[in-house]
Amino acid sequence: MKVGIIMGSTSDLPVMQKAIDILEHLDITTEVDIVSAHRTPEKLFDYGQHAHTRGINVIIAGAGGAAHLPGMVASLSPLPVIGVPVKSRNSIDGWDSILSILQMPGGVPVATVALDGAQNAGILAAQILGATNTDIRDRIIAYKEELKQKVIQGAKSLQ
Amino acid sequence: MKVGIIMGSTSDLPVMQKAIDILEHLDITTEVDIVSAHRTPEKLFDYGQHAHTRGINVIIAGAGGAAHLPGMVASLSPLPVIGVPVKSRNSIDGWDSILSILQMPGGVPVATVALDGAQNAGILAAQILGATNTDIRDRIIAYKEELKQKVIQGAKSLQ
Amino acid sequence: MKVGIIMGSTSDLPVMQKAIDILEHLDITTEVDIVSAHRTPEKLFDYGQHAHTRGINVIIAGAGGAAHLPGMVASLSPLPVIGVPVKSRNSIDGWDSILSILQMPGGVPVATVALDGAQNAGILAAQILGATNTDIRDRIIAYKEELKQKVIQGAKSLQ
Amino acid sequence: MKVGIIMGSTSDLPVMQKAIDILEHLDITTEVDIVSAHRTPEKLFDYGQHAHTRGINVIIAGAGGAAHLPGMVASLSPLPVIGVPVKSRNSIDGWDSILSILQMPGGVPVATVALDGAQNAGILAAQILGATNTDIRDRIIAYKEELKQKVIQGAKSLQ
Amino acid sequence: MKVGIIMGSTSDLPVMQKAIDILEHLDITTEVDIVSAHRTPEKLFDYGQHAHTRGINVIIAGAGGAAHLPGMVASLSPLPVIGVPVKSRNSIDGWDSILSILQMPGGVPVATVALDGAQNAGILAAQILGATNTDIRDRIIAYKEELKQKVIQGAKSLQ
Amino acid sequence: MKVGIIMGSTSDLPVMQKAIDILEHLDITTEVDIVSAHRTPEKLFDYGQHAHTRGINVIIAGAGGAAHLPGMVASLSPLPVIGVPVKSRNSIDGWDSILSILQMPGGVPVATVALDGAQNAGILAAQILGATNTDIRDRIIAYKEELKQKVIQGAKSLQ
Amino acid sequence: MKVGIIMGSTSDLPVMQKAIDILEHLDITTEVDIVSAHRTPEKLFDYGQHAHTRGINVIIAGAGGAAHLPGMVASLSPLPVIGVPVKSRNSIDGWDSILSILQMPGGVPVATVALDGAQNAGILAAQILGATNTDIRDRIIAYKEELKQKVIQGAKSLQ
Amino acid sequence: MKVGIIMGSTSDLPVMQKAIDILEHLDITTEVDIVSAHRTPEKLFDYGQHAHTRGINVIIAGAGGAAHLPGMVASLSPLPVIGVPVKSRNSIDGWDSILSILQMPGGVPVATVALDGAQNAGILAAQILGATNTDIRDRIIAYKEELKQKVIQGAKSLQ
Question: Where does substrate bind (chains A, B, C, D, E, F, G, H) (predicted)?
Answer without folding.
Answer: 9, 12, 39
